[in-house]
Amino acid sequence: MTEPAEERKVQTYCALCIARCGAIATVAGHRFVALDPDPSHPTGAALCAKGRAAPELVYSPQRLLYPMRRTRPKGDPDPGWQRISWDEALDTVASAMRRIADAHGPEAVAFSLPSPSTTAIVDSANWIRRLMNAFGTPNAVGPNYLCGWARTQATTFTFGVGSVHSGSGGAMADIANSGVLMLCGYNPSGSRITHATATAEALKRGMKLIVIDPRHTGFANKADLWLRVKPGTDGALALGLANMMIQRGWFDRAFLRDWSNGPLLVRADTGRLLTERDLTPDGSERRYVAWDAASGGVVVYDPAKGRYEREGAAPSLEGAWRIATAAGEVVCETAFSLYAALCRRYPSEVVAATCWIDRDQIEAAARLIWSARPVSYYAYAGQEQHANTTQTARAMSILYALTGSFDLEGGNVLFPSVPQAMIAGEDLPGAKTMRPAAGFETRPLGPARTGTIVTDALYDAILDDKPYPIRGLIGWGANLLIGRGNVRRGRAALTALDFFVHADLFLTPTAEVADVVLPVASAFEREALRIGFEVNEDAQSHVQLRQAVVPPRGESRSDIEIVVALAQRLGLGNHFWGGDIAAGFRHQLAPSGLTLEALRAAPGGIKLPLKTQHAKYAQRDASGIAAGFATPSRKVEIYSETLLAHGYPPLPEFIESGAALAPGPELAARYPLVLTCAKHALFCDSQNRALPSLRRRVPHPEVELHPQTATERGIAAGDWIAIETPQGSIRARARFNTSLDPRVVSGQSGWWQACPELGLPGYDPFGETGSNYNLLVGSASLDPVSGTPTHRSGRCEIRPAG
Questions:
Q1: DSSP E strand boundaries for 236-287
Q2: How far apart are CA 410 and CA 202, in angstroms?
Q3: Which of 413, 436, 462 is where one domain is finished?
Q4: How far apart, in whole angstroms, are the C-alpha atoms of residue 540 and residue 610?
């Protein structure tokens, strides 16, 4: 009789998504058999089905286990993959990178990364960035223009930081102390279980909840208000709520007067803020002007000092005046008055018609936001994946500013973090001489400003040499041909590359186009250092060296090992601690005072207690100057001259997302339904569908629709139907949802992979008989600042599939 394998427990955390839930892995003998929550961890209250399926992920028979190279042309349906050694693979990659850089410059080699919200790329993202900076390329094809741009970047035009944290800085919703929480296009039950458990606990103590979502999802059934917004109209809703709050006096006047640029005067003739230089030739262009109610005249505001130049000044928040300037009289109005005028264009009846929300719900929401303060909010992909995402995020952030809750207990708080040394390498010589990222010339305030390029910019650089040629791509798990729009152009672009290497766990449709594929160890087969867990003060204080639960399968390696090996072959090893990864971890940890040895001895992690100081903007230095906000005015910017200077509206004007997809009545009649999509809680984007425990519960791609919509088209529940847009057509099975608006259809992205254990098929990523949602998404309507397409607010028609 065989003795049962000895079991051991390994404290770890699940890195499969942004929640990074604390967990305990069970290993029987040498096999990883289970993953369970670790209640002692600050994110370990629960674990989702994806996390519990981790052993299936590790031992999937579809895993890539060895480096391989293509032996047949890219147009051939059979790539002819041939196993090669790691030395041959790495030498091939490094040689191609040097060859392309010598011919076209290092910027001609781009890198691609997947979402840090739905993969374990955070383990290595900064190491990959360091390699880019050492090599000299600014071009990282990242996902933030689809997921994260609005909440972490667009809101910097308001607060100077992201008003919602998403793994890359910004404020965190202090759910434990909130009076009311707004979930905007965000279902934490499926996207971030740590927020779901925090929300559930807060509801028990009496926190109020507003859910803004086209679908009755997650906490909608427990919400005080569920606002079933028309996809892509969240910006109009935010303006309408702000209008009601301003009209009723439900806003923090003192906060806006003292800490926003609302009192600053705007010239009616130029739209620019009135400056001291306008008043006198000797004045500064960087000092602004407000109307002082105390003196009945103008008063100068100096951003360098963060204060008005007259002691006892009482800047007026509202009003318009004729101001004598060096060039004559100019009509000026406060920035807040201009914002209030914009909001007045969205009375309840307009919002109801635009957003498909009952008028009484709009008033109820505005009243609840004001009466139940402090307010926190979290916006996610449901609100972001539209062609008006920048101004929507601005509208939401300014609505939030009305509450005065920013960085207060129970609001969206800038929690402290454990000190650490950055390792992304912005200080390396190669980083200092890089050209601007592709796409910067057309969207200088967008993702390219920080070295993240949108896929359309990548495809333009490959196929049209705009703004310069990109000839090589180093892929780190980003499944571009399933996860991004413009799929057919993307396939043509990747096929046209001189060289493409892709590192991943599985041979995805994107990897199939590569010249070389590299097998990556899963998060449970490698070490990773995590400094802070981005939920609350307690979680932020937690530092953990995640240990490998089991050794890597086959010849798979961690991303960091691959990065370091490439750096050495490129002659850049001196920038990577001579290839010593542990030395890199020690470099990161040095400011914290923690040692790698101490973390190895405490696999569950170590806490370094932190103390949150609220309202940091009001803290003054020894000379009495307040910290303020990281904006040009050092105030919350209701009116953004940064946007205005680049030709964008300085106020959050609403333009309905997707309008360009149906410019006339003919197309509107042909595609009468609004098409949105939602991530299924069991899957991470285009992953997990090969795992039997998950796929068994959702065997086929589905599209949600109202029974009335189905009946009108002769569709029964479970039927295969075709979803058609101006860009293409795909198939999915009909699933009825009576809570969905009959004018809305909700699809799913990410379908391609088979599950042979259950006899369930894969789906053609590039044909109409397949289910690749992003075949339906094109480039006709893009956010002008970020380049975000309309993934969630297009137009479509559905019909029974033939």
A1: 265-267
A2: 11
A3: 413
A4: 8
Q: Are residues 528 and 443 in the same domain?
A: yes
Domain that holds residue 37: 7-58
pLDDT, residue 662, reads 46
37 and 168 in a single domain? The answer is: no
CATH code for the domain of 436: 3.40.50.740
Which amino acid would we find at residue 228?
R
- Looking up tokens 């405490």 gives 602
Measured CA to CA in angstroms, residue 348 lies from 251, 395, 652 at distances of 18, 16, 18
Positive or negative: CA dihedral 750, 753, 756, 761? positive
Exposed e or buried b for every residue in 423-441, given b needs 16+ CB within 10 A?
A: bbbeebebbeebbbbbbbe
Please list, in sequence order, all residues whose beta carbon lies within 8 angstroms of the beta carbon of residue 241, skipping any fewer than 6 positions away: 362, 365, 366, 369, 399
Instruction: Say what the pLDDT of residue 666 is.
Output: 80
388 and 364 part of one domain:
yes
- What's the residue count for the chain? 802
Q: Is the CB of residue 301 less than 8 Å from the CB of residue 676?
A: no
CATH of the domain at 38: 2.20.25.90
Using CA atoms in the order 779, 784, 789, 795, what is the torsion angle rounded to 10 degrees? -80
Q: How far apart are CA 415 and CA 585, in angstroms?
A: 23
Residues 52 and 173 in one domain: no
User: Looking at the domain assignment, is residue 306 inside a domain?
Assistant: no
CA distance 225 to 183: 11
> pLDDT tens digit string along 495-539?
999 999 999 999 999 999 999 999 999 999 999 999 999 999 999
Do 399 and 444 reside in the same domain of the chain?
A: no
User: pTM for the full model?
Assistant: 0.96
> Could you check whether the bond before residue 374 is cis, i.e. omega within 30 degrees of 0?
yes
Q: Which residue ranges in the chain fall short of pLDDT 70? A: 1-4, 165-169, 658-664
Q: Is residue 571 part of a domain?
A: yes
- 597 and 735 inside one domain: no
Check if the beta carbon of residue 215 is closer than 8 Å to that of residue 737: yes
**Residue 256 in contact with residue 339, Cβ under 8 Å?**
no
Q: Which residues contact 741 (CB under 8 A, 6 or more apart)?
A: 214, 228, 230, 356, 706
Say how many domains are in the chain. 4
Q: Are 575 and 453 within one domain? A: yes
Identify the pLDDT of residue 661. 47
Q: By C-alpha distance, which of 93, 89, 69, 91 is closest to 81?
A: 69
For residue 154, count other CB atoms closer than 10 A to its CB: 30
Give which of 643, 673, 669 is closest to 658, Cα–Cα: 673
pLDDT of 75 reads 83
Taking only the tens place, the pLDDT of each residue in 55-102 is 999 999 999 999 999 999 998 889 999 999 999 999 999 999 999 999
307, part of any domain: no
Final residue in a domain of this structure, among 383, 413, 443: 413
Output the domain CATH number for residue 223.
Answer: 3.40.228.10
Is-cis flag, bond preceding 467, omega within 30?
Answer: yes
Please tell me whether residue 363 adopts helix, strand or coil conformation. Answer: helix
Q: Are residues 357 and 439 in the same domain?
A: no
CA angle 607, 608, 609 (to 5 degrees): 105
Pairing of strands 82-83, 68-69: antiparallel
